[in-house]
Amino acid sequence: MRKTLLLPYLAIYDAAMRLGPKWGPIALGYGPIVVAIVAFLLKDSLLDPVMDPTYATILIFVLFALCGPLMNIGTKIVTENMHKGRMGEWPATGDPRFDRRGKVSPTMAWVEAMRG
Questions:
Q1: Rounded to whole angstroms, how far apart are CA atoms 107 and 47?
Q2: Predicted TM-score of the model (pTM)
Q3: For labelling, which of 57, 65, 78, 113 has a CA lying 20 to 30 Å from the CA of 39?
Q4: Cα 26 to the chain's mean position, in Å?
């Protein structure tokens, strides 16, 4: 059951990470905010004629809320990348198995663990 719920999030994560290690996390973390702003700007012309304006607003908020885990992952990866750029190693995780000088951030390693 948990794996089934993760599949859409993992698909979006994979699509965003195709943009690269710098722009992929930025797209994950801040892309939903831009999409929500654009959705509200276009709501009057696209959604309101098709459905009740109140339900259109609720729909936008629900879809934005569903993006919360992706925004969390994206912003954590951006922060970890900044930390590695300044300090030369990933932030401490408390897990002795994690390679602080490796190529993968702690959050990216966690996402890959969720796949398995």
A1: 36
A2: 0.87
A3: 78
A4: 8
